[in-house]
Automatic annotation (TrEMBL), chains A, B:
GN (gene name): serC
UniProt-annotated location(s): Cytoplasm
Cofactors (names): pyridoxal 5'-phosphate
Enzyme class: transferase
UniProt catalytic activity: 4-(phosphooxy)-L-threonine + 2-oxoglutarate = (R)-3-hydroxy-2-oxo-4-phosphooxybutanoate + L-glutamate; O-phospho-L-serine + 2-oxoglutarate = 3-phosphooxypyruvate + L-glutamate
E.C. number: 2.6.1.52
Record's protein name: Phosphoserine aminotransferase
GO molecular function: O-phospho-L-serine:2-oxoglutarate aminotransferase activity
Naturally occurring in which organism (per UniProt): Halomonas flagellata
NCBIfam families on file: PRK05355.1, serC_1
Residues found modified as N6-(pyridoxal phosphate)lysine: K198
Amino acid sequence: MISSPVYNFAAGPGIMPREVLLQAQQELLDWRQSGMSVMEMPFTGEEFQTIMRQARQDLRELLGVPADYRILFLQGGASAQFSLLPMNLLPPGATADYVDTGHWSRKAIEEGSRYARINVAASGADHNYRHVPAQARWQLDPGAGYCHITSNETADGLAYHWLPDTGNVPLVADMTSDFLSRPIAIERFGVIYAGAQKNIGPAGLTIVIIRDDLIQPARPETPSAFSYRVQAESEGRFNTPLTYAVYIAGLVFRWLKRQGGLGAIAERNRRKSDRLYDAIDGSDVYVCPQRAADRSRMNACFHLADASLTTEFLRQARQQGLLNLQGHPAVGGLRASLYNAMPDAGVEALIAFMQAFAARHT
Amino acid sequence: MISSPVYNFAAGPGIMPREVLLQAQQELLDWRQSGMSVMEMPFTGEEFQTIMRQARQDLRELLGVPADYRILFLQGGASAQFSLLPMNLLPPGATADYVDTGHWSRKAIEEGSRYARINVAASGADHNYRHVPAQARWQLDPGAGYCHITSNETADGLAYHWLPDTGNVPLVADMTSDFLSRPIAIERFGVIYAGAQKNIGPAGLTIVIIRDDLIQPARPETPSAFSYRVQAESEGRFNTPLTYAVYIAGLVFRWLKRQGGLGAIAERNRRKSDRLYDAIDGSDVYVCPQRAADRSRMNACFHLADASLTTEFLRQARQQGLLNLQGHPAVGGLRASLYNAMPDAGVEALIAFMQAFAARHT
């Protein structure tokens, strides 16, 4: 039996805004007296096209996407983009720079290596990903087709709190886990991509924001459904999009606007994560090894000084309604994901539990 | 203002079972006292793994999938499979047979041609897709890697009501629009694939059923997330699946079992479509050009003898709550999709309207 209220600290799919779920519930059988659930709508019909147009426009406003960037609603998740990005951007034989800041960078590099010569411009592997490598140490290739970063490392708890300068080489970011958590200077990027299941909506939906001049014919072997150019030129009508996920994402964008936009949400995210990191750093029972300046505001990765207590910590937390606090399997330990939808009360409940647990076990 | 009840005849995304939507609505904020919406569940967690396991098992039972076939829950829709199928099944330079029975066959051929030498074994183009070419006229290539059919043509209103014999060449079917509408002799196929947005669930989810011996390493350029082998070996854990769509599909599978399974639903589908085709054939106002033996039971494609009345027909139908009866844009005319979830009452309401419209306009 789990006590109520429940707070879901999963790294994604993870917590969604309650207001969004309530609205989705209310509209589930009949969207605005259309007589249809959004799941039942033909995607070329007026109703769904209205939903998709509104979602794209709200996202453009939220992020301040410049006019010379396209927003694509794709499918397959960020793991598919690890392949589709070089297939769409790089001719065969090209080189790309990748910066390795942890688990998800390595996945992107591994998959990208199947399509291009990858130059790992910098890596945090030698210090076990305790901090983001300073740009002064990056060995960039001036001939690279792009430079790829992972703006937030979900498994390792690191994030960029500064913007790299890659000169004329387009900067490309996997923003899956911090997209919409703070304002972004879009114009500093060539491509931004993000899987939806953190701060956007249901898993599978994949957002690609790309500068017009980078939309080129993809490699010949690229499935047309995954060609940025085909999708951009068809305005998402090449094949049936993830209609229901686009709808939910649209509700999330509206919710974000009601919260005051990305500036306001960033401030709240900063406050929530500061509270948690302060509690961790103020205790001898919990350890966060990441350098303070590079810590993720989305995924606080930490562990118990006595790792043998981890299972007991998770068991008791679950009993208290604090769910999914285990670390990524590749890393272990604990992880509290504090996405946009996590209320302050959830963070306070976690901290109270951590302090009580610490008191019981020291 | 649309009158109630509303019947949605869209070709997909289309009508879903009301009981499924009601259950989804009820569980939307909290799945079985887990404290989480299914959209919020980590996909490797016990809750979602239970949902996915159950869905796969129910589908296996419904279809009678033999033990030497795998069921994959993929992403991207059938249009993506037009590319991913040859990428996964054919080495470079291979040949494949395709039978052309209409709009969606042609799409599959067009995309498949980018990966293989395609032999169009038979085509209905010369008679404007009035019937499915008899197998006696197929020019099969004994060296083909597979023979591809489209078991139901959504835009043209044709379906196979017999099973081709392709000898040792694996038979592959795009079953997007009639999957789960009737029993299938799975063992006669090498691969079956289907996008979800007709009889399964939300758009994007893509089901691939493949015989074990056909699961080979994909071509080197295939994104790992779309490799049948990678997905089969990881049991769907390679990347985050379409969690919410898998859940809805699972509810649909349960609903189908409660309807008595595929034999019972096929009988109902036969009855519904017979009623509609009888009404069309019994009138001078409506014309269905497809040969009776090859007509689709999912998508009745017909037109008005006086095509100038089409817009007025659609307008009046909509007023009566009979939605989305326009034909596919590439074909024109009218189309009534009668998926599993369309109740008898919807078909009766459509026929009553058609008869009244005919009486008013002759």
